[in-house]
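Sanity check

After download, print the first record. It should look like this:
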Amino acid sequence: MTSWFLPIALEVQGYTIWDPPSFAMPLNIGDPAPSFKALSTAGEEISLENLQGIKVLLYFYPKDDTPGCTKEACGFRDQWSRYQEQGIMVLGVSKDSVAAHQKFTQKYTLPFPLLSDPDAVIASSYGVWGEKKFMGKTYMGVNRSTFLIDENGKIAHIWSKVKTDTHAEDVLSILT
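Expected structure tokens:
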């Protein structure tokens, strides 16, 4: 089953207001990965179409420079050479701005690009934007998840229950 979503846009006084949907159908292994295009920490646009022929590890996280997100990112940084040996491009995605991503990348010396998804369009298309609960409050946000996309643009593996301390190693254990 392919994930799709209907963009909901509302125009008010000449401005388009975007309300990212939270009802994308879940992705399954073997499904085509939803295409995406976003600005990276280098200020360059990265798209899935330009990555054909390369394995891509696309990980979604809630916010730069928070404890769990930092542990997860540093785990990928610490295992970077092993990902390179496997020919895997690691891409982190959150709603943070490119400027915030640049600060986070510099602070922790992250060797891989982070993609800015300020309107949660990519997160929605991968089915990871949705309702969350924290300290008795319900809100919309990114549900931490990771997708391995094969060289042909198909979903090869999905991690939806991520332990930030060990996630980089958990992914590698599936790959080796």
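If your output differs, re-run the checksum step. Summary of this record's structure: The chain is about 25% helix and 30% strand.
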